[in-house]
Amino acid sequence: MITVNVLNSTLTEQEKQAYIKRAHALYPGVPIDSINIAFEGDYADITYNFAAVKFERIRRITGYLVGTLDRFNNAKKAEERDRVKHGLDYETTEESDEQLYGGYEEDRKTMIGSNE
Question: With the C-alpha atoms ordered 58, 92, 52, 49, is the resulting torsion angle positive or negative?
Answer without folding.
Answer: negative
